[in-house]
Amino acid sequence: MKIDEYNYYLPPALIANSPKKPRSHCRLLVNKNHSDEIVHDHFYNLNQYLNPRDLLIFNDSKVFPARLIGKKKTGGKVEILLLEENGIFWQVLIGGKVSAGDEISFSESLLCYIVELFGKEAKVKFNSSGANFWCQVNKLGKTPIPPYIKNTPLSEKSLRREYQTVYAKLPGSAAAPTAGLHFSKKLIGELEHQGVEIATINLAVGLGTFAPVSEENIRRKKLHREKFQIPYSTVKKINKTKKAGSKIIAVGTTTVRALESASQKILSAEKEISGSTDLFIQPGFEFKIIDGLITNFHLPRSSLMILVTAFLQFRGEKDGRKKLLELYKIASEKKYRFYSFGDAMMIL
């Protein structure tokens, strides 16, 4: 497999730079198993494709204002993206020229020191921790929207609301689990009223989700590690749904990675599951938990496209990559909106 095989052309006008309002009014492309039928619908009609006792599983991780802009003692501008806290250190992405030992100031009261550099990644130590640190980050930080979202009309205040799922709980993600952005509280309530079950996992979205894919990643079948938790209540609902013969629908690729990474434990566990995953799902992967997937239209040459390809193939497509590129071409011709603030696709 070559990453260039997952390239496609997208007219720039189809890159969504703001969400649909209301959020459940985005479009929905539905592709059913063993069928060439493609349905063009709207997300608010999601209930038409789900049955009572089907289980929807969300990633309830919350995006925090992880983008900090500071300067070195020389005055040079430096931007960092907070990825993961490890004890007294943070793993970050660095934008700007820095060296180990440099001090970066973000305000009079918040600064960090570069401890180690690993290309564009770094280990840093802040002069603040705990509640005071988070207070500073919430005050100074910017919402880390992807670089392809240019000239968004949304203010920082609006971004903090719109680039967030309505069910987000635990802060920890440097990017939104975007398949969930289409759900409104009203729609979730309607689905529950219909008898659809709802459950959550928590996976802190980081480099494993949005970093560019290398040939080394493909060869080793591994991505950057991301931490996850699966509550015991979710484990019980998964096993109950499987026993009843109903469908388990993952909302987003991050949910898929958490569930499939822990599949053996889920099917036998009697407690909460926590861990981390570097799983890179590729064609040939045997899915053990999910029966359906709600996802967005992803960037070319991404691990997310490869995961969706693997699921299409697992559901019976002879050539999952060809089918996915076909679906993307149809979506492009029908003027669907792509990427984080774009429209949705459902594979059953």
Automatic annotation (TrEMBL):
Q: Where in the cell is it found?
A: Cytoplasm
Catalytic reactions on record? 7-aminomethyl-7-carbaguanosine(34) in tRNA + S-adenosyl-L-methionine = epoxyqueuosine(34) in tRNA + adenine + L-methionine + 2 H(+)
The record's section on Gene3D superfamilies has: QueA-like (2.40.10.240)
The positions making up the signal sequence are none
**Keywords attached to this entry:** Cytoplasm, Isomerase, Queuosine biosynthesis, S-adenosyl-L-methionine, Transferase
Q: Which GO terms describe its biological process?
A: tRNA queuosine(34) biosynthetic process
Q: Which Gene Ontology molecular-function terms are recorded?
A: S-adenosylmethionine:tRNA ribosyltransferase-isomerase activity
According to the lineage, what is the superkingdom?
Answer: Bacteria
Per the record, its GO cellular-component terms are: cytoplasm
Query: InterPro entries, from UniProt?
Result: QueA, QueA_dom1, QueA_dom2, QueA_sf
EC number assigned by the record: 2.4.99.17
Pathway membership, UniProt: tRNA modification; tRNA-queuosine biosynthesis
Identify one Pfam family in the record.
Answer: Queuosine_synth
- Predominant location of this chain? cytoplasm
Q: Which family does it belong to?
A: Belongs to the QueA family.
Question: How does the record describe its quaternary structure?
Answer: Monomer.
Query: What is the name attached to this protein's record?
Result: S-adenosylmethionine:tRNA ribosyltransferase-isomerase
Organism per entry: Candidatus Berkelbacteria bacterium CG1_02_42_45
